[in-house]
Amino acid sequence: MPHTLFIADLHLSPSRLDITDCFLRFMAREAIHADALYVLGDLFEAWVGDDDHSPFHQQIKTAFATLTQQGVPVYFIHGNRDFLIGKRFARQTGITLLDEHTCIDLYGTPTFILHGDTLCLADADYQAFRRKVHQRWLQQVFLCLPLVLRRRIAAKMRAGSANANQQKSSTIMDVTPQEVQRQLDKADVRHMIHGHTHRPHVHQWRDQGHDYQRIVLGDWYQHGSVLVCGPQGCDLQTRDFSNS
Ligand code: LP5
Ligand code: MN
């Protein structure tokens, strides 16, 4: 059966080899049979530049390169942890980097795909942080710093973020419904797929006589989260970390 796979928010790091193993199994045994694989951001816990060639990153890059060399197209949308993944990474792995907001034809259904952070407008502190770190000049300056310093800054940001998140309500950290509708209307589509909020769910609603659907991918923390879409629709599934 033809099918396309979507994943997001794996937050891969050497400190969680259970997640890494599950991901590598997924790539070798499942993704290989798909029409395409879409990674909707936050593949890595933090990405500080394409020149970070640690053995861990090399292993992940090899998994993508193997998949694309075998003819499975891989598309990637940046998340808030790995927005510095660049052209060099894309060249080395054969993946295609997509715009932060992209419309695809999913077996005849126009579908809007994104990481999901731009939907969280109630989180004003995050949106201000995002505007800062998305400035091109600041990114260029950051990328000129020595790797060890970049890693240290990223760790500080991660700690600052974890700390800030403890003070935020769950409503603030979820999507803003009006923004979901606004982005769908702007793109003139009724289906959306995203990650970021770590609240896996298939939302369905009706507005002005039209049916809408928003699928939220889960994060890979206690288990993997994989969306399998085919001509008949989409199925949000989980993958066990301990399956060998
Ligand atoms: O990521 P997560 O799930 O914890 O929370 C996100 C938002 N947080 C972030 C920050 C990232 O986690 C940090 C990633 C580092 C990337 C690599 C470095 C690249 C640097 C490039 C520089 C040009 O995105 C969080 C949201 C949450 O999602 C839910 O939507 O709430 O937003 C924040 O936490 C933002 C805070 O509210 C304010 C910022 C705190 C950061 C403190 C920075 C201190 C850095 C000092 C450096 C010298
Ligand atoms: Mn995210």
Secondary-structure element order, as H and E?
Answer: EHEHEHEEEHHHHEEEEE
- E-strand count: 11
Question: How large is the share of residues in beta strands?
Answer: 15-25%
Based on CA atoms alone, the radius of gyration comes out at 18 Å
How much helix is in the residues?
A: 25-40%
What's the average pLDDT? 97
CATH overall fold name: Purple Acid Phosphatase, chain A, domain 2
Instruction: Detail the poorly predicted runs.
Output: none
Question: Sheet with the most strands?
Answer: 6 strands, mixed
Shape assignment: globular
Q: What is the straight-line distance between the termini?
A: 25 Å
Q: Which CATH class?
A: Alpha Beta
Structural class: alpha/beta
Helical run tally: 7
Task: Give the bound compounds.
Answer: ligand LP5, manganese (II) ion
How do the strands of the widest beta sheet line up side by side? 4-3-2-1-10-11
CATH homologous superfamily title:
Metallo-dependent phosphatases
Protein described:
The protein has 244 residues and is of the alpha/beta class. It has one domain (4-239): Metallo-dependent phosphatases (Purple Acid Phosphatase, chain A, domain 2, 4-Layer Sandwich). It is built from seven helices and eleven strands. The protein has helices at residues 17-30, 55-69, 87-93, 124-133, 136-144, 147-167, 177-187, and strands at 4-7, 36-39, 74-76, 96-97, 101-106, 109-114, 191-194, 201-207, 210-216, 224-230, 233-239. A six-stranded mixed sheet has the order 4-3-2-1-10-11. A five-stranded mixed sheet has the order 5-6-7-9-8, with no helix packed on it. Strand 10 (224-230) and strand 11 (233-239) form a beta hairpin. Bound molecules: ligand LP5 and manganese (II) ion. Residues 9, 41-42, 79-80, 115, 117, 196 line the site of manganese (II) ion.
